[in-house]
Amino acid sequence: MLLEYAAINELEFDCRPQRHRPSYRRDGKEAELKRTRPRSPCTVVSSAHPNHRQDEHPSGYVHQTPTMVAITLPLLAALAATPSRLGIVCARFKESLDPWAPVAASTYLYSKGGVPQMNDTVQHSSFRSYVSLRNIGREGHTHLYHIVNNYDTLDDIMIFTQADPFDLIAPVVNTTEQMVQKAMSVPADDVTPFNDALFHDVADWGRIDWNSSAQKLWITASQIKSLQLAPYTPAQFWTMIVGGEHPPAIRAMHGGTFAVRRETIRKLPKEAYQKALNEFETTNSTNPEVGFFMERMWAPMFSEKYRLPSVQNP
Fold it and tell me: Shortest CA distance to 205 belongs to which of 172, 161, 160, 250?
């Protein structure tokens, strides 16, 4: 069945092939999305939508809201199957918003680069929320900020991501559509980095020599130059946040992009995430060492299956 438009949670989505889709304008004004042909019998429209008028002629339909975005049928099916609304937390500096337009209605966009609307092709108002944050703490600060401020209202399935994650999660996952589909299948008490090749075991609990060859996977030479060192070791950070003695080794996710269920996040109390967020806020750095600690600790914080007796997959 071919859909031109469909509605989920009272939001309309444009399901037409790319050649039939209107484009967002670059002049900073609200995008106009116009229909150029009659509705097909397969069209699904929400009568609860604020712009729906029952007396409008189908061949002259004009929809002037930025919430209509290009979407594909597999993604539509994935969103419809979500037990509640999917939540996508996207940490942005100055990256393009185009990949996130199809899932804008589910995306909490956190902007740390101060890009004005006039320089973006996608309307900021089309996102579930568009919030400006100080440019500190890398993506870990953004993820923690959302968890702490929305702990009691987290969506059933959460994606946490950088704005341009595809250089890492490809070739397994190449689009936001594929990210959503993979997120839908993440089990309880687990987490996925979208590409299992991004899992690496580490046992660095003392002071880390970031200049060593073993750390090249995790940090670049330019990042080392501006790194703000933490006043504690990874072992001390673990005890501070999770509590107790750290495991001998952990299975870490490289890249700071992952999907996890709400109940898995809530296995730790809000206070644990608040403590971690406080460390980022106190450091107040664009490139803090604690950001690299946090990147490694997400998976074992969420699930004990990633707390290991030894390094098995370096």
Answer: 250
